[in-house]
Design brief:
The protein has 261 residues and is α+β, with helices and mostly antiparallel strands. 18% of the residues lie in helices and 34% in strands. A four-stranded mixed sheet has the order 1-6-4-5, covered by helices on one side. The radius of gyration is 25 Å and the shape is extended. The two termini are 34 Å apart.
């Protein structure tokens, strides 16, 4: 799996979102005039939890970064504290009971825990949670309540080798596009690209195998002097987007095109 575009951890007890409950609505005379459907997490605790998640997401993503537009993968790992009933009593209160479950299989539902996170990240890290094309959720026991969130940007036009083929690549040298400069905070770096002699360069060796047998190998020197005019297929916040695009174009040209009959 590629590196996430953003990772952050939220500390505190998670509140699920997604359970709906009807509330009848009456006029001043006491006549029923309809029903309001509200979310079960819209109480004080639910609002505080979602506010904390949103604040941590903004802090990790940045105040002025635009939300992602393309397909994304979302991974959320929930850590919950074991109930006291899982432990023995007296001098053995630190030991688990023999019948204590290994995983938190009870309330709250992991899907409803995830819904709260998804809603908080909308319009912050991504435009809409409909962009989530792959989602990995885990719920485990641990020493404290904690939620780890990772967001991955998916290429919109990914290609793959046919079944039975394996490509091995060894990168021997890389010269990244642009130049790195320290940020104002001096705790990070940013890359400035000008489209002149700062184009990306990658030297590599490769071996193509079919059903375990080597059928092709060689060395390549990849260059893209027109990289600033290429149609982007990766997030503008991906620090390796120019190099990934260079490798993607090389891969498509060498291996994705149908071989002559």
């Amino acid at each position: 799996m590629p590196e996430p575009v953003v990772t952050f951890t939220v500390h505190g007890r998670q509140i699920p979102r997604g359970s709906k409950r009807p509330i009848p609505k009456f006029d001043r005379s006491g006549k029923w005039i309809g029903t309001i459907i509200v979310d079960a997490s819209d109480g004080h605790g639910g609002r505080e939890w979602m506010s904390q998640v949103r604040d941590d997401a903004i802090r990790a993503w940045g105040d002025f970064r635009k939300p992602l537009e393309g397909p994304i993968t979302l991974r959320i790992d929930f850590v919950r504290i074991r109930p006291k009933g899982h432990f023995r009593s007296g001098r053995n209160s630190s030991l688990l009971r023999d019948d204590a479950p290994s995983h938190p299989i009870g309330w709250p539902d992991v899907l409803k825990l995830a819904r709260a996170i998804e809603d908080c990240l909308s319009s912050v890290i991504y435009r809409d949670d409909a962009q989530i094309v792959t989602e990995l959720l885990t719920k485990r026991y641990g020493p404290s309540y904690m939620t780890k969130v990772q967001v991955f940007a998916e290429p919109e036009n990914a290609v793959a080798l046919p079944d039975g083929r394996q490509l091995k690549i060894e990168i021997t040298d890389v010269d990244l596009a642009g130049n790195l400069f320290p940020s104002r905070s001096m705790t990070d770096q940013y890359r400035r690209v000008r489209g002149n002699a700062d184009f990306p360069r990658i030297d590599l060796r490769y071996t193509l195998e079919v059903n375990g047998q080597e059928v092709r190998s060689g060395q390549e020197s990849l260059r893209d002097m027109d990289y600033t005019h290429q149609t982007p297929s990766y997030s503008s916040y991906d620090p390796m987007r120019y190099e990934k695009l260079l490798l993607e174009h090389w891969f498509k040209a060498r291996f994705a095109a149908p071989e002559p009959q």
